[in-house]
Amino acid sequence: MASKQHKSAGKKVKPSGPAATAVLWGLDPSFGQAASEKGEAVREVLRELGVRVRVAAPARLGDAAGAFAGLVGYRPAFTDYAGPLPQGEFVLLCNLNNAQVDGFIAGCREAGCVVGAKAVLTPANRSWPLVRLIEAVSAEHARMNG
User: Fold this and answer.
1) Which of 11, 16, 18, 103 is at a distance of 20 to 30 A from 52, taking alpha carbons?
2) Is the pLDDT of residue 31 over 90?
3) Cα–Cα distances in Å, from 2 out to 5, 8, 11?
């Protein structure tokens, strides 16, 4: 006797939440050759983990971090960001589980492309404009490394 197949068999299943995403700043060709090479290595580590990569455009720095992460209820800012551009490199890890975060850190260390200033999206920082988050994390990183 043939078994009955479940109605959803063979259908694609939507993910239960927003996709794992990393937002990069200061790791693209516009920041120089070294940033470009390091950025490509960081992108490769993220690809191996199945994490989608987004490069933050200067005009979008005023958008809430949650908008970059694709969270429901967060939209891009109404106007383009026109303030000073943050210096240095930054990675914002959005919607990653602990194993993916650990894999990112270990993968970057192994590939020789460790990024100094990085953060994980949290309920406390998801409404911050990306530029504010970059500046706060970069300042904290600088204080810790003296």
Assistant:
1) 11
2) no
3) 9, 17, 20
Whole-model pTM: value is: 0.86
pLDDT value of residue 11: 58
- Tell me the C-alpha distance between 12 and 2, whole Å: 24
Q: Please tell me the number of Cα atoms within 13 Å of 99 on its side-chain side.
A: 3
- Amino acid, single-letter form, for residue 97: N
Inter-axis angle of helices 33-48 and 98-111, nearest 10: 140
- DSSP, residue by residue, the chain: -PPPPPTTTTS----SSPPPEEEEES-SGGG-HHHHHHHHHHHHHHHHTT-EEEEPPGGGTTSBHHHHHT-TT----SS---SPPPPS-EEEEES--HHHHHHHHHHHHHHT---SEEEE--TTTTTSBHHHHHHHHHHHHHHHT-
